[in-house]
Automatic annotation (TrEMBL):
This is Extracellular solute-binding protein. Residues 54-67 have a biased composition (Gly residues). PROSITE patterns: TAT. InterPro entries: Bact_solute-bd_prot1, SBP, TAT_signal. Residues 1-37 form the signal peptide. Pfam families: SBP_bac_1. Keywords: Signal. Transmembrane segments: none annotated.
Amino acid sequence: MTPSFSSTVHHGPIRRARPRRTLLMAAAATLTGALLAAGCAPSNSDSASTGTAAGAGGSAGGSGGGAASADGPVTLTVWSWRVEDTAAYRKIFDAYQSKNPGVTVNFKAFKATEYNQILATGLSGSDGPDVPQVRSYGQLQATLAAKSLVPLDDTLDLKGWDPTIVASAKGKADGKLYAVPFAQQSVQLYYNQDVFSANGIKPPTTWKEFQDACAKLKQAGVTPLAIGGKDDWTLPIVHEAVAASRFGGKEFAAAAASGKKNFTDPNWTASIQTVADLKQYMPDGVTGVPLTDAVTLFATGKAAIFPGGSYDLAMLKAANPDLKLGVFQMPVVDGSPAGATPTTAGWADGNFGVNAKSKNVAAAKKLVKWMSTKEFGQLVVDEIKQVSAVPGVTFSDPVMKQMSDFYAKNPSPYFLLTDFRYGTPSGGELFTKGMVNVLLGKQSPAQVGTDMDKGLAAWFKPQQ
């Protein structure tokens, strides 16, 4: 679907880098499929429906498929929701097979929106995968409650890993480790280097510089912030990208998780107001703008800044291979708590575990253990184009390296996901609904905070 720009572009004298005329149609054609497949985006929805397999041929089932005796050849089936990474994973598992004669790894991918139900069905029977890719944090707990995974504390040594990332693979009730995280996601602001250059703008280092840059871009007819609020799950990401310093970053996250602060805290509500104040720099009618339109605006040079996740990098490059991308952290917002610094929120959005009903548990454990090594981590970086969760990997892509460096320097958890998605309604769902209402002028930030506390009271218990 080719997006219409009649309501999303500021008209007037435009000073921007000229993309090729063909980019608009090419970007639109690429984006719909890319966005539907973007399974690493932290959607607030926990629902799923049945669907069909994609990837390697054969039936959906795979536990023990092709296995001979314990001393003979073994076939391990790996399931994932990352359809777009099928070729990359096959290349990665070729590397494993070359060093493990007699082992065949059969990778199968399913539509991300249908994967949860497909996996639940597979793990409940005898024909599920040996090594399933599983969700993280709160979304992992139902799988653990069904006793579908093997504990891996005796298999994996994740000392030295980021604790926020490791927590994604643990049971909330027992604290045991059940999987290995495959990638580290983070939030930042992408910018179009050509658009910045054409308008005499550099990545801002102060809040005033950021505001001045947005005002200058808008005056020049360029949409400063490419945001698609119709896909409302993006709004918590936007909030983290632009307002984390205003609510206090990791310090507030820790206080909220421990119950020392709640979501009526004035710094939290002020951070929601920060997003609302930037509405003037978003596409007109932002809550009705699809994410595909926002990405196309950015990819074609009609918008300058895209608040997004590290998982968006490959998609943005696919939308316009000639796009000169850069990233920056939002400078500290005026009024932020004392000592606030620019921060980058991060999380793990997927893990690999071992099916408790696998006929090849030992071989599956060995494969998952390999997934915790630097060799596998480097292949994730090089082939899947994601920031690996494994410490010590290197990056040839300068944007990927910059994102990793930002997170390493001053990390904070994307805590609506890491701490407030263990019950219903989730923190992300409550925030998203409230943020939409604020942008529509139907609620105040203070009302959003009150509603979040009321909704979370149904299940949230502060960490001790």
